[in-house]
Design goal:
The complex is a heterotrimer of chains A (416), B (95) and C (983). By secondary structure, chain B is of the alpha+beta class. Chain B has two helices and six strands, in the order E-E-E-H-E-E-E-H. Chain B has helices spanning 35-44, 84-94; strands spanning 2-5, 9-12, 17-21, 52-58, 66-72, 78-83. Chain B starts with a strand and ends with a helix. In chain C, the strands form 13 sheets. In chain C, strands 8, 9, 12, 13, 14, 15 and 28 form a seven-stranded mixed sheet that branches. The longest helix of chain C has 18 residues, at 450-467. The chains are: A alpha/beta (416), B alpha+beta (95), C alpha+beta (983).
Chain lengths: 416, 95, 983
Amino acid sequence: MKYSGFKVIKEALTGHKGWKPVWRTPKPKKEYDVIIVGGGGHGLATAYYLAKEFGITNIAVLEKGWIGSGNVGRNTTIVRSNYLLPGNEPFYEFSMKLWENLEQDFNYNAMVSQRGILNLFHNDAGRDAYARRGNSMMLAGADAVLLDQEGVRKMYPCLDFENARFPIKGGLLQPRGGTVRHDAVAWGYARGADNHGVDIIQNCEVTGMNIENGVCTGVETSQGSIKAKKVAVCVAGSSSRVMSMAGMRLPIESHVLQAFVSEGLKPILPGVVTFGAGHFYVSQSDKGGLVFGGDIDGYNTYAQRGNLPVVEDVCEGGMALMPMIGRARLLRMWGGVMDMSMDGSPFIDKTHINGLYFNGGWCYGGFKATPASGWCYAHLLAKDEPHPVATEYRLDRFRRGAMLDEKGVGAQPNLH
Amino acid sequence: MIINHPLLGPRDAAEFVYKGDASLINRPDWQADDAAELFHEYLYLRDNPAGEHRELWYHEQGDRSWLIVTRNTLTHDISKVEFARDVALAERSKK
Amino acid sequence: MNQINRIDGGLINRSNKLNFNFNGQSLEGYEGDTLASALLANGHRMVGRSFKYHRPRGIFSAGSEEPNALVQLRTGAYQEPNTRATVTELFHGLEATSQNHRGSLKYDLMAVNDLFSSFLSAGFYYKTFMWPKAFWEKFYEPVIRAAAGLGRLSGEDDPDIYDKGFLHCDVLVVGAGAAGLSAALSAGRAGARVIVMDEDFCMGGRLNVETLSVDDKSGSEWATQALAELSAMGNVRLMTRTTAYGAYDHGIVGALERVTDHLISSEKKPRQILWRVYTKRTILCAGATERPIAFGNNDRPGVMLAGAVRAYVNRWGALPGKRVAVFTNNDDGWRTATDLAAKGVEITAVIDSRDGQPPVDVPKGAAIVMGGRIVDTKGRHGIRSFTLSNGQQIPADCLAVSGGWSPNVQLTCHQRGRPTWREDIAAFVPGGELPQGMSVAGAASGNLSLSSVLLNGHDIGNSVVSDLGFTPSKVKSSSSEEETTGISAFWHVRESKVRAWLDLQNDVTVKDVKLSHQEGFRSVEHLKRYTTLGMATDQGKTANIPALAVMAECTGKSLPETGTTIFRPPYTPVAIGALAGRARGKDFRPSRLSPSHSWAEEQGAVFVEADMWYRAQWFPRTGETHWRQSVDREVTQTRASVGVCDVTTLGKIDVQGRDAAEFLNKVYANAFAKLPVGKVRYGIMLREDGIMMDDGTSARFAENHFVMTTTTANAVSVFRHMEFCRQCLWPEMDVHLISSTEQYAQFAVAGPNARKLLQKVVDSDHDISNEAFPFMACGEITICGGVPARLFRISFSGELAYEIAVPTRYGDSLVRTLMAAGEEFDVTPYGTESLGVMRIEKGHAAGNELNGQTTARDLGMGRMVSKKKDSIGNTLSERDGLNLENGLSLVGFRPVNRSEELKAGSHFITKGNTANMANDEGWMSSVAFSPNLGHSIGLGFIKRGSERMGEVVLATDPIRGGEMDVEIVSAHFIDPEGERLRG
């Protein structure tokens, strides 16, 4: 079924009787060419691109809960490609280009909104670092603008320019950055994959890996054992848990990142702003809520909830940056479990076990990577070699000393 | 969270700085034949368990002691708090 | 027509009349009113518009669950959007306006949305607005955004202040209704430290709104008496206007106290206080919330919760309507009819969805319909009548609806708890895995009759305190008459042909839930996300359970199988300002000031934030109009004669013990064990991954005593790291560390006349001649006639230089002394800018180079990493990826055209190559104008840089639209042989 304004009008006039489930509810088959473990954004995108771009359609996506229940449904919806390192920036720019054509591609309005993302700096060293990064972005074909204080003030007059502890000196703007309606990304990919014949199986938890003589032949699940030529794991915060079933230890820790939304307000913030002297970033959703977040709680956890000190720290950052939000009320806070890697960058790689593939380590930056992660993982699964923009995302890079450490904080996941 | 410091009693976790898995106190021998691989595993690979986790916390806004806290990563319940130095010394005497 | 709907009775103070203003209309109410009760008393039924369809909305509830009656409270910078009128305490001079309409509240232009409602079904926007591609951002989205939100922020800084505090107690009682007061009495009488919190300004909960009696007194009299007893106890603290909004790990509870929200002005007092409560036990007595029943056009003003209707009548003497009808599926709903009838209000009908006999005596004159169904209502701006499934029309200007009561289990679920279903009361009650230390009592635990609530609160209070080791008092529980609480689950009227609302604020109807099911969004979370159910400011407190019941009906599963969405903090929305407290503006973070700060201020210094420190950036002199003039002068003067710079902010760590030398040998990558006493050495510290962590110096003052300096930025993290090394890695070493950053004031004295200047202040028994105190010497000396000091012959500027440290209390006088003594040498103070210029001239790395991504090898110090010993980072620094043949190296740069200005952050491209990422060879990390060389100079990293001296490369800077040819040169622009610093 094709979605369109015409279809919406037709259905409205005929009592909405013609709408079909957005994805089927199939029973798992005995065997698939590819099993994707994890029905989040990345898993569903992988299935979609495998089917659509690489012609592999005998695929199951196994999701232990409901699709989109992980980080794709609990992030702060920001998309951007404002990275520094040559191992990262081309990948994220590839992702940004996929975002820009996503809705027409999968015929679902995910509300990709390129409202601009502005990273503020507060001193000369910050400006130098952002100039370096902005130049990296431009050398990779992305867009970037370096604003001075006046430039920032013109865009966001409501920031604290007069009385700040760390005065705003300027910012790095990526006009093409912005926000996307996060749930719709999962649903759109699910719908697209389902249309290509992919089986999306919810409430199907993987409980074991079948590995014989160094070859992965399938998985055990809460709905029985399923064979596969290739098993592609893509489970974000649960990476260590699932890969331990294959006897692997990963360069990953699981941490909680909290996110927050205020009550609905009439529009006051045009784009995404990040504070450079504290942990706070914010945008305003189409419904009017201020969607904001900050630092991770900082301790290993698998609980999708955080604690008060970080809530307060984030709100302190918010009030330091834009004291006008004091009278807006925080409506909901929640948490997502992040697969924090040892250098803050992800993995899309084969493992030493034949037929077993791994995608993870996205830290708190997985959402914006969703299309490229899906595409590159599909490329790896289909061709057994990394996509050209994802060649650095190897599991052995720490052994080789080829870290991709954007923040320069070293092998401590909670600092990334 | 509240960490029950062995000397100072219950203290808010916000007074502490977190480092990670307590295995970080077992630094490999730099002269071992496979030192490079041992250091790689030591620094980069983690069990990251869903359940009981022994981990390092530093009482930065307190007495500056490093503690090993045994905490459940699903419930956040803390079952044990020790001085990391005591644990490290005990492990040495075992060797 | 003032207060036309005010009747006798209630807990309002009629002797204190309060004037207020709603939508420009002056109205009157009384002390004790809420804005909602006052509006009702004045006959206002319509108070706002819904989110999507802009349907008229009236007051629906009498508490914090209110989905409808949201107003913009106050004006100007004080305006506060989405404020629930039902919990807004009336004050004299209150100003409020309705929200979410274009044009007047009555004639909202956006109400046109309602006509198109069938096109605006759940999730319609995911299916359209995709063509043409550019139209989403240019047209559709702006239109949607313009319609978004309800209330409005002023855009001005929040003028109020907020405080934070900590509370400690044995027992925290959340909610001061019948259960909470009983529990608090038990706990308080046993001697426990008790805190009782209630969100209302008047404690007592539903005791204040029901006509039930306790111990032969009216409920509110009993509450007053209980409160009097509690407030007389020294161990009990009563906190009104305080909401426990979240339960966190290890029993910590977050609470918000609204201190001045009920006053016209906060008068410099904190508006609200955020409390973090550390309690051994929490007794949750949060009561229950009534649910509606969904039926056709059930959203009109005048359709209200039954319990709210009698609350307005009983507590506030405010009549929601003159002709009231009741629609209920339970016995409690009938109470509204009997209470109102007793006040002489006309009851037009009682419709009970259950078959059988009326559970109580029927009010006179009311039509009684058992097994009845309401299918529709009429009335444009408020209900006038309703229609039953048999076609009968019954007039009513207020329809009181009760679908039963849901225990307020939210706080029990803030961690791992999931509620469980109780069929007999058709409600979810707290399940297992409650937050640490939490018990639940009263209606919140599913006890819905007053007599059981009182007893339950009493018993749980006693059991909690006896767990804590207190002896419970022997006083018996208060008691109340028995009441009937029968209920038969009934969620929505299937016979309704028109839209039946579930979520009143977000306009989610029964049809939307069915469509969600039809399209496969069947999991509770999918339902919520697809339809926006329960995502409005009320968090679906009244909407969620009925909607889940509709979904359960669609899937053919039971309600508990369908599950609930996860409850998350906060229980009710919390102002962001309160969560931030005082940490805003200049108080966002602490300010660290160096000992010479006041002196520098006197000199007119310009300060810069360096982490928490304020450091003098430069010292403008009269006539200097541009910072460069000051900096050029400071640099020139220092290099020509002498300058003084405060370097107190560098981290200082005292290292002592028998193994101090060996310890430093392990934390530094270069050798330290054999450093002689009286000498300083430059050291580089790696992280375990082999990347540069920090650099600095360590001075050996005695065999077992070193003084280390770190960079300002890493002072804290280096100290933490060294404590980790000491306690966890090498616990057998005899070494002790203490940070002395704040104990010593330290100044760099640099320039050819540095020694001459210092000789004037150093006591004469200390020889600091070049022979006695050569480059890299250190010593403990005295100055100015006996003041203890430490002297280091080290140089960051490349000049003959010293750093002199004195106990902090002498810092201010030392800088004044140095400046006075230096007058004959034309001494200049210099700030961080000049410090930066001189270190770049000298080729020293600083923060821009030590950025956590570079190795010692990149910095040209690879050979310093000793391979003969174990040190942090040594092993992993040998990995191939950190030792690439075409790896980066730090070199100097100068523009080929000397008049051009280098730009930090530009990237290097080999001449002739296209400027793109594949050809990117490095970046410029630091630049400065060198007044000594007369042109711009820079430091930067470029592949194989050290082998490329003299090569001209392109420095491209597309973000500032520039590019220029630059020449690779030695990083040592000044005195490459180091003669000056040894002189």
